[in-house]
């Protein structure tokens, strides 16, 4: 983080206003637990302005309206406050208007998107006063999210590999093969990430670890170069079966899709399913199978890969 000498940052912030756009994400992608993530072209958008008075005013439209808190505990506000604290600049009064489309509690990175929205809003508001590097933005977001696999693609777009070093999280962004057409199947009910994580064992058999190392290495090749390998590359033994009992509808449809040869995985901690389809008929067949499921209703979202990641502009 680098700062520019500004006599009174608080008065330099007066009147500043930014517009932020953040994509949905799908993490894990099968074998890449807590490591791989994909940005998807469905967005939350926010307008954040420095207010004349202290405190925060929050307005939420779309997903989460009437459900999420409208005070300092709103996740975007917490994330802005986290970045200002790291920058050493007192948090000014803020007004925030959110237009959300990313479903909550469905494994599509809504909390990661809110955190990233806050971090990039802070970057935009502090432009010319404090500059954040990409690694610093990823570190701030990961500190709040707990793991980097959703926040990396939300920040940077495309397919991301994220890993943690003693100096903080790092990422590598890759461009997905244009033949890959993601399809997300979203059930009616939610799943808590905390519950899903509580179902993970402390340790796993060595052979399962080797299995996932091979598949996640293969998955990178499949996603950027060889989509015909996606079915084998999306196999997993580290998380999905441990969590299956907590989301039986997801487990049933996932098994059916994979039995039919689809490269289907649980999206993030679930309960949505991500199908990494590579032709339109494959996508149509997966949608038909979801529509025929008797145990819950599935919403089918054919979503392009987002290549930009989060954007912030003066408004
Ligand atoms: N890697 C995370 C998990 C993604 O599966 O628990 C959800 O935050």
From TrEMBL:
Record-listed ATP binding positions: 103-113
Stretches assigned to the GHMP kinase N-terminal domain: 75-158
This protein's record includes keyword Signal: no
Location relative to the cell: Cytoplasm
Pathway assigned to this chain's UniProt record: Amino-acid biosynthesis; L-threonine biosynthesis; L-threonine from L-aspartate: step 4/5
UniProt cross-references to Gene3D superfamilies, sorted A to Z: 3.30.230.10, GHMP kinase, C-terminal domain
Name the record gives this protein: Homoserine kinase
One Pfam family linked to the record: GHMP_kinases_C
Role: Catalyzes the ATP-dependent phosphorylation of L-homoserine to L-homoserine phosphate.
Family affiliation: Belongs to the GHMP kinase family. Homoserine kinase subfamily.
EC number: 2.7.1.39
Annotated signal peptide: none
Domain GHMP kinase C-terminal: 230-290
Species this chain originates from: Agromyces humatus
GO MF annotation list: kinase activity
Chief location of this protein within or outside the cell: cytoplasm
Catalytic reaction equation(s): L-homoserine + ATP = O-phospho-L-homoserine + ADP + H(+)
Entry keywords, A to Z: Amino-acid biosynthesis, ATP-binding, Cytoplasm, Kinase, Nucleotide-binding, Threonine biosynthesis, Transferase
Highest taxon listed in the record's lineage: Bacteria
Chain segments annotated as coiled-coil in the UniProt record: none
């Amino acid at each position: 983080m680098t700062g520019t000498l500004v006599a009174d940052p608080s008065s330099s912030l007066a009147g500043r206003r930014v517009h932020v756009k953040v994509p949905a994400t799908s993490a894990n992608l099968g074998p890449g637990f807590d490591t791989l993530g994909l940005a998807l072209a469905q967005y939350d958008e926010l307008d954040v302005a420095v207010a004349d008075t202290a405190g925060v005013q929050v307005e939420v439209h779309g997903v989460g309206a009437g459900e999420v808190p409208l005070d300092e505990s709103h996740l975007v506000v917490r994330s802005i406050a986290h970045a200002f604290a790291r920058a050493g600049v007192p948090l000014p009064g803020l007004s925030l208007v959110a237009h959300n489309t990313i479903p909550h509690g469905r494994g599509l990175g809504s909390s990661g998107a809110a955190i990233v929205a806050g971090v990039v809003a802070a970057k935009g508001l502090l432009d010319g006063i404090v500059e954040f590097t990409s690694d610093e933005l990823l570190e701030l977001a990961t500190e709040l999210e707990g793991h980097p696999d959703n926040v990396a693609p939300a920040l940077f777009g495309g397919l991301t590999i994220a890993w943690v070093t003693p100096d903080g999280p790092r990422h590598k962004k890759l461009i997905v093969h244009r033949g890959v057409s993601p399809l997300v199947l979203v059930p009616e009910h939610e799943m808590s990430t905390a519950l899903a994580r509580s179902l993970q064992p402390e340790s796993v058999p060595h052979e399962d670890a080797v299995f996932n190392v091979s598949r996640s290495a293969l998955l990178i090749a499949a996603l950027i170069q060889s989509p015909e390998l996606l079915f084998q590359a999306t196999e997993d033994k580290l998380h999905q079966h441990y969590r299956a009992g907590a989301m039986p509808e997801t487990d049933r449809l996932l098994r059916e899709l994979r039995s039919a040869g689809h490269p289907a995985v649980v999206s993030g901690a679930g309960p949505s399913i991500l199908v990494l389809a590579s032709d339109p008929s494959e996508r149509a067949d997966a949608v038909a199978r979801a529509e025929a499921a008797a145990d819950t209703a599935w919403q089918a979202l054919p979503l392009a890969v987002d290549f930009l990641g989060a954007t912030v502009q003066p408004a």
